[in-house]
Amino acid sequence: MRAMQYVMALACAAGMASAQTTVVDFESGNEGWDGPQGIGGATFIDPTGGNGGSAGLHTQFNNFGIEFATSTNSDFLGNYTTSDEITISFDLKIDQIGFSGLNIARPFMLELRNNDLGDPGYPWASAYLLFDWYTDSADDGFITLSTTFNPNDTDVPAGWGGNGAFDPVTFAPKLPDGVTFADVLSGVDEIAISTFLPDYFFTFDDYDVTVDNISITRVPAPASAFALLGMGIVGTRRRR
Fold first, then answer.
1. Is 239 domain-assigned?
2. DSSP 112-145
3. How many domains does one find in the chain?
4. Cβ atoms of residues 157 and 180 within 8 Å
5. For 64-112, how does the pLDDT look when each residue is reduced to its tens digit (9 = 90+)?
């Protein structure tokens, strides 16, 4: 009887522990996330520029493109394949992309980078998802972009692309030979929200863009869930 109660308790607890979410809302700093800095402009935490008037990560920069990225926040890095499902989302507000008063659309993508798997000459092998091409959304405020995927897929999922090598016939970017989607996600060294879509070239433009509430939700594989229970690591964390 006690054994059955224990199993039922574990099953119930596993359900409660099934998802672990981290949210970076920039109320307590950038927590490893940053954007472009240098002669073209700056990225900074705007204390009232985020979604709902809270803090947000704001870049004003002139360049071929921009990206917000982290290679230090461990909650967004590491081995994704210990999870059955991953959801990544963020809020995006575009006040300007263009020059001389012209509004120009640019691609916004999520890129997951593994520094160990790229072909010679490539800094990484990556899997990337193009959300869409966006332009000035100042009148619309923030939009939320989100994706949910299985990190254990071997094939690149529909809508995603691979980089780290190129097709010798079409010259299009692709994953290196023998490298799968799951291989890349087994060691994510950097995650980026980027406009630098592989195989595209862009003009210099003025970017005035804010991101907020960058989040990752991991649904552990069953074995991982029970291991977390054994260590007492359950629940949801909100990075403040």
1. no
2. EEETTSPPTT-S-EEEEEEEEEE---TTT--EEE
3. 1
4. no
5. 999 999 999 999 999 999 999 999 999 999 999 998 778 899 999 999 9
At residue 78, the pLDDT reads 98
Strands (E), 125-225: 125-134, 143-149, 160-163, 165-166, 173-174, 190-194, 205-220
Give the DSSP letter of residue 195: S
Query: Is residue 130's pLDDT more than 60?
Result: yes
Q: Is residue 169 part of a domain?
A: yes
CATH classification at residue 179: 2.60.120.260
How far from each other are the two terminal CA atoms of the chain, in whole angstroms? 43
Residue 189 counted as domain residue = yes
Q: Give the mean pLDDT of 130-159.
A: 91
102 found inside a domain: yes
Note down the domain range covering 6: 2-231
Q: Which distant-in-sequence residues (6+ apart) come within 8 Å of 109 by Cβ? A: 128, 129, 130, 131, 193, 194, 195, 197
